[in-house]
UniProtKB/TrEMBL annotation:
It is found in: Periplasm. This is G10844 protein. Pfam families: SBP_bac_8 (PF13416). The gene is g10844. It comes from Coccomyxa viridis. Keywords: Periplasm, Signal, Transport.
C-alpha cells in the first residue's frame, strides 16, 4: 500500500520510502505501508495447513506473523509484560482458554474486541457462545457486558477405560460418573489435575451439575457433609492426579481408567485397541480456546489498538466451510458444531449414523451425542461462597 510523501513527515505506519513513477513520467516519493497482523497461539491449536491457507488469503493485504507458546499459562503471564518486544501483550490476538478469560479481564490484561457485535463472525456465533464471551469488567457473565473473546475450537472432558482390564476382572462398563465409584476401580483411576472438575464430577454423582453453586446444593437438600463424603468416595478411587502423567499411567497399566481432556485422550485411544472412550451420559465439562485482544495491542492506527486485519482473522475461524473441516474432538471442534444447551440442534454436517450416545467412536472425526452435549457445561467462575465450599470439602479448610 503506497501513499505520496510530499513534504510531510512519515506517518507512524510507514515502513520505508521508495520512488514511484507516475503515468505522466514524473517520479514521486511514496511511503510504503506494512499492515501486519500478529497472533500468538497455543502450540498445536492451529494446524499447519490452516496457517498456510490464511497466509495465502492475506498475501495481498498485509503480513501475518504467528508465534506459538507451549502452554496457556505462558501466554497469560506474558500479557502482563509489555516491555518485551515479542510479548503477547503487544499482539493483536492471543489464545486464551475459557478458564483464563475471567482472570485476564479482572486483571486488566485484555480489551473488548472492537465493534464485535457488528462483525460477520458475531452474527454466525450461536447464542450459547455469545453468552459465554459477553462479560462485565470483572469477568463475570453479563448480558449487558462487552464482548471479550471469539471462540475458535472446543473439546470436553472424557473418560477412557481399558475394557480388557476392567470387564475381565468383574467390573462393569463405564457410562457415567457414578460408574467410576464401582469397587473394581478403587485406586485404579488417573485424573487430570483440576480440582474444579473433580468437585464438579462429585456433584454429578449426587445428581447436581458442574456449575452448581453453594446455594444450589443447599436448595437441593444436600448438606456440606454429603458433598464432602462424595468427594472422599471419589478420591478413594484415584491413584494419580496429574495433567501430564495420567495418560502414561493408563498406557503402563498402572490404572484402568483415566479422566482427562479430549485432546489428550483421543490420541491415546487411537494407539490402544482395548480403550473405550466415553462422554458421561449425564453431561460433562466443556472447554474452549478463544482469541482475545491484549490491552496493549499495537498494530492498529497510530500503533495503538489491534490491527485492521483482526476482523479477517476472526471471520476466518467461524466460516461455515471451516466447520465442515474442523468437526472432530482430536484437534478441537468448530464452535458452529456445538448444539444449544437446552434445545435440539440440527447439524447438517453430522450424519445420524455418527451420533453415538455416550461412547465416542471414530475418535478424531466424531463428537459425543447431542443429548450429552446439551447436558454439558462450560465451567463458569465460582462465586465466593462456592469457592469456600470447594476449599472445605477438598482440604477441610
Amino acid at each position: 500500500m503506497l501513499l505520496a510523501a510530499g513534504g510531510a513527515s512519515a506517518p507512524q505506519h510507514a515502513q520505508a520510502v521508495r520512488a514511484v513513477q507516475l503515468p505522466d513520467g514524473s517520479t514521486e516519493m511514496a511511503y510504503e505501508f506494512d499492515i501486519a497482523l500478529q497472533v500468538i497461539a497455543l502450540r498445536g491449536s492451529i494446524p499447519a495447513d490452516v496457517n498456510l491457507e490464511f497466509r495465502k488469503a492475506l498475501s495481498k493485504y498485509g503480513q501475518f506473523r504467528l508465534s506459538q507458546r507451549s502452554q496457556l499459562k505462558d501466554i497469560f503471564e506474558e500479557l502482563s509484560n509489555a516491555r518485551k518486544k515479542q510479548s503477547a501483550a503487544r499482539a493483536d490476538a492471543v489464545t486464551l482458554g475459557d478458564a483464563w478469560l475471567a482472570p485476564a479481564i479482572r486483571a486488566g490484561l485484555l480489551q473488548p474486541i472492537p465493534d464485535a457485535q457488528n462483525s460477520t463472525w458475531w452474527k454466525r456465533l450461536p447464542p450459547r457462545w455469545r453468552a459465554m464471551v459477553t462479560r462485565d469488567s470483572s469477568g463475570r457473565l453479563s448480558r449487558k457486558g462487552q464482548v471479550w473473546a471469539c471462540p475458535y475450537r472446543w473439546g470436553c472432558t472424557l473418560i477412557a477405560y481399558r475394557k480388557s482390564a476392567l470387564l475381565r476382572r468383574g467390573g462393569h462398563p463405564v457410562e457415567d460418573w457414578k460408574d467410576l465409584l464401582q469397587p473394581k476401580l478403587e485406586g485404579r483411576i488417573a485424573w487430570t489435575d483440576s480440582p474444579r472438575e473433580f468437585v464438579g464430577a462429585a456433584l454429578q454423582t449426587l445428581g447436581m451439575h458442574f456449575n452448581s453453586t453453594a446455594a444450589d446444593v443447599k436448595a437441593a437438600g444436600i448438606s456440606e457433609a454429603d458433598l464432602a463424603e462424595a468427594v472422599a468416595r471419589l478420591r478413594k478411587q484415584v491413584r494419580v492426579f496429574s495433567s501430564r502423567e495420567h495418560t502414561r499411567a493408563l498406557s503402563a497399566s498402572d490404572v484402568w481408567a483415566v479422566v482427562g481432556w479430549s485432546g489428550d485422550l483421543l490420541p491415546l485411544a487411537e494407539r490402544m485397541n482395548d480403550v473405550v472412550l466415553v462422554a458421561p451420559s449425564s453431561g460433562t465439562a466443556l472447554w474452549a480456546d478463544m482469541w482475545a485482544v491484549p490491552w496493549q495491542a499495537q498494530n492498529g492506527s497510530k500503533m495503538e489498538g489491534p490491527s485492521p486485519l483482526l476482523p479477517a482473522w476472526l471471520d476466518f475461524w467461524l466460516q461455515p466451510s471451516r466447520a465442515a473441516w474442523n468437526r472432530g474432538l482430536k484437534s478441537g471442534a468448530s464452535p458452529l458444531l456445538l448444539p444449544p444447551q437446552s434445545t435440539a440442534s440440527d447439524r447438517e454436517n453430522l450424519s445420524e449414523d455418527s451420533r453415538y450416545p455416550g461412547i465416542v467412536e471414530g475418535f478424531g472425526d466424531m463428537i459425543p451425542s447431542e443429548t450429552v452435549l446439551q447436558r454439558s457445561q462450560f465451567l463458569e467462575p465460582l462465586d465466593q461462597p462456592t469457592q469456600q465450599l470447594y476449599n472445605r470439602v477438598l482440604h477441610g479448610a
